[in-house]
């Protein structure tokens, strides 16, 4: 590489180590790009980034000595991703770690040669990000969530808590590559359970209130929030709107339950970023490195929200929970 740069970020204790000026030492440093649609000022994003960095440290890498991380943050603006990944390409990073489907899609459009490790991505095959999980081809590998099973499982859990539930709204962002396939899986699951499913979209924060107003008019009984950075950045507002409307809210991401949603069931995001670090370590030929699926799933239940909604969580479900928020 022609350039070795380390731009550290300081947030919540994330302190970068300086790179020595000697050419010999610089030559041994491997430059890793990290592309996120979120902001480092968000505690959850800082936590996941720290988990990724810790994963690299556990593998023996020392920032500023054997590795340097170039993070780029879109701060909730998907339109900024193309420019940010362009910066990483010009820096000639050795690998780009992407957070989410949109960031992965943008990175793929920017480079066909730099290996891309995707994290927290839904439907990698059906959206065309990879050819198959076993042999992804191209320059992309990483971790792809099992969305069909997830959405159906979330519907089943809702039925356990509210057996008489009949109308469920699916809230998502169509900008996400996996939005369409997840909607289809949810519709299949709803038919099996005898539930009427309505799909509402929120491409930007201004559409969130409009979506919840439509839920009220439609007399929906519950809402499932699909994974998306824009919706996740506004998780507290979404949780408050759901509680005000007395709507049980379920998501694949535990952050929604921690913000006040009723429950979450899905892959452990922290574990996903830990595993992404192992891909950075192993990566040589990404086309031959199989795409993995999550092995650790978290069931999070917010009892405070359940009480506010007048719901009693079955003891059998509480016993299965990985985290109970009281």
Q: Into which percent range does the helicity of residues fall? A: 25-40%
- What's the CATH superfamily of the largest domain, by name? Response regulator
Provide the CATH topology of the largest domain: Rossmann fold
Instruction: Walk across the major sheet and give the strand order.
Output: 7-6-8-9-10-11-12
Using only C-alpha atoms, the radius of gyration works out to 20 Å
Q: Unreliable runs, pLDDT <50, ≥5 residues?
A: 1-24
Any guess at the CATH architecture of the largest domain? 3-Layer(aba) Sandwich
At the first level of CATH, what is the class of the largest domain?
A: Alpha Beta
Q: What is the helix/strand order?
A: HEHEHEHEEHEHEHEHHEHEHEHHE
Structural shape: globular
Give the amount of beta strand, in percent.
15-25%
Give me some keywords for this one:
about 325 residues, alpha/beta, Rossmann fold, 2 domains, seven-stranded mixed beta sheet, five-stranded parallel beta sheet, 12 strands, about 40% helix
What does this protein look like?
- With 326 residues, the chain is α/β, with parallel strands linked by helices.
- The chain folds into 2 domains: 150 residues, Rossmann fold (3-Layer(aba) Sandwich); 149 residues, Rossmann fold, CATH 3.40.50.
- It has 13 helices and 12 strands.
- The strands form 2 sheets. Strands 7-6-8-9-10-11-12 form a 7-stranded mixed sheet, with helices on both faces.
- Helix 6 links the parallel strand 6 and strand 7.
- It starts with 22 loop residues before the first helix and ends with a strand.
């Amino acid at each position: 590489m022609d350039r070795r740069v380390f731009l550290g970020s300081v947030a919540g204790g994330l302190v970068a180590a300086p790179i020595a000026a000697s050419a010999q030492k610089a030559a041994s440093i491997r430059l890793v790009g990290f592309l996120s649609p979120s902001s480092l000022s968000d505690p959850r994003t800082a936590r996941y980034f720290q988990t990724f960095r810790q994963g690299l440290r556990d593998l023996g890498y020392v920032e500023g000595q054997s590795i340097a991380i170039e993070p780029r943050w879109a701060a909730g603006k998907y339109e900024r991703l193309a420019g940010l990944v362009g910066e990483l390409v010009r820096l000639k990073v050795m690998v780009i770690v992407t957070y989410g489907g949109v960031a992965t899609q943008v990175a793929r459009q920017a480079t066909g040669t730099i290996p891309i490790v995707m994290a927290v991505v839904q439907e990698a095959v059906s959206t065309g990000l990879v050819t198959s999980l076993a042999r992804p081809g191209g320059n992309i590998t990483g971790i792809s969530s099992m969305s069909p099973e997830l959405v159906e499982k979330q519907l089943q859990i809702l039925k356990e808590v509210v057996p008489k539930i009949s109308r469920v709204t699916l809230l998502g962002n169509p900008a996400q590559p996996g939005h369409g396939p997840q909607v289809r899986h949810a519709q299949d699951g709803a038919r099996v359970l005898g539930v009427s499913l309505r799909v509402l979209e929120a491409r930007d924060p201004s559409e969130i209130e409009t979506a919840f107003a439509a839920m009220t008019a439609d007399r929906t009984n519950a809402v499932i929030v699909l994974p998306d950075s824009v919706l996740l950045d506004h998780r507290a507002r979404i949780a408050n709107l759901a509680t005000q409307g007395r709507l049980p809210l379920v998501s694949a991401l535990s952050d929604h339950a921690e913000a006040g949603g009723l429950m979450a069931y899905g892959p452990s995001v922290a574990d996903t970023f830990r595993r992404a670090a192992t891909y950075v370590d192993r990566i040589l030929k990404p086309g031959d490195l199989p795409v993995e699926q999550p092995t650790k799933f978290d069931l999070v239940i917010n009892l405070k929200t359940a009480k506010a909604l007048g719901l009693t969580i079955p003891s059998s479900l509480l016993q299965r929970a990985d985290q109970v928020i009281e």
